[in-house]
Amino acid sequence: xxxxxxxxxxTKRYDDGTLALDGLDLEVPTGEFFGLLxxxxxxxxxxxxAICNLIRISSGSISVxxxxxxxxxxxxxxxxxxxxxxxxxxxTVREALVYHGGYFGMTRARAxxxxxxxxxxxxxxxxxxxxxxxxxxxxxxRLLLARALLHEPRLVILDEPTAAVDIELRRELWRYIRTLxxxxxxxxxxxxxxxxxxxxxxxxxxxxxxxIVARSTxxxxxxxxxxxxxxxxxxxxxxxx
Amino acid sequence: xxxxxxxxxEPLVNxxxxxxxxxxxxxxxxxxxxxxTMLAPVVSSALFIVxxxxxxxxxxxxxxxxxYEEFIVGGLIAMAMAQAAYSNNSSSIFQARSDRYINDxxxxxxxxxxxxxxxxxxxxxxAMVIGLVLAAVAIPLTGVPVQSPAVLVLSGVLLCxxxxxxxxVVGIYAETFDHHTFINNIVILPLTFVGGVxxxxxxxxxxxxxxxxxxxxxxxxxxxxxxxxGSSDVEIAICLGVTAAFALGALAWSQWLFSTGRxxxx
Lengths: 241, 266
Fold this sequence. Notes:
heterodimer; A: 9 helices
């Protein structure tokens, strides 16, 4: 089976000389719930931005479901919810969803219908005609996720989707993401909440200084590092890398 | 959160549709902010026509053989359109970069030229609406004729492309909102004023007349004026050719930024 995501020898050096990704290799099988953990500055967001065509990579290659990563077909298959809410300040919730669908090639009717579905699923009905700057933090987070899923991507990338949300919403998002995964969507999740990674991910990679330093199931990682919790694994792996 | 999403069976890429949506979004922004984007420039340019044309026009008999109030209409409309196309695109792209919602466009399945022209479309739409409204006000008010509609339309299109693309370039390079206003106030506005909006450069003494010919906006103003009056300070072919050359240069620059991702993508 073709991998959902294949990254080969990916290097990214920013213009100021910072080496964010150092020949990184990564394979995510189709249908997997994959977690990417690492300290701040380890390269998680840079890797995500590279996959989503949001940075210029220095060298290496990316393929998505066997397609060249920067191709239009590959981009159509990726849904991204970024770490910080980046919502169009001039559009209402409904418009933000419909226009996103349009950018991803959907017809007006299809995008509008899908937007209504997402508004209902993410409980945004009361705010459907409100512009993004007037939404609460939790509502923005829901809208980000709804937007990422609107065009029905096969690979969903969630960059710290539950950062700065209350416990109730976090649990709700977990439930939704699990449902999404159970229907065959491949998910790549980055998070600082280790219990979140342990609860959701089948496979976890630890990234440090732009390289994958360990990868296994949560149990496999604990065994390998002789650790009782994923937090201990994290600390050991990052300190020895 | 009570309904599961559906997974797409096959990806269907329609980048032409995506481009139209981006262009529509840019036009929506213009119409949503209409008091800033349309009303303010129309009122200020209409006041220029009334104050300079109708008030001062009674004391200035003719310029290049035309009543003053008719002479200034083309230049004032060109100036308003140029500023609208530039300001719209530079501020729209700067805001999209600043708030990072431009990532929704950069990640979308669109070709770089489609993203580029999608952004240019917003400024072109705004400039065209302002140009049409000002013409609708100025023609009955001053009695200015439209001697060459084809030249008027062509020069309007070239002007929109030139300043729309310039706005895109500045919006991409700008680090702060001041940069966008700096270029407008320090470069575009002075060049427009010395580009023969209010006078014929033939009236200037040497070397100012010759120096005026080094100002690209002089040719744009004269091309639009020719569309109204059928007369310009230099040959209309030269006016259109120079404006087209600068428009192509600006478009090539902004396209290069989208194609390479420079300044747009770290």
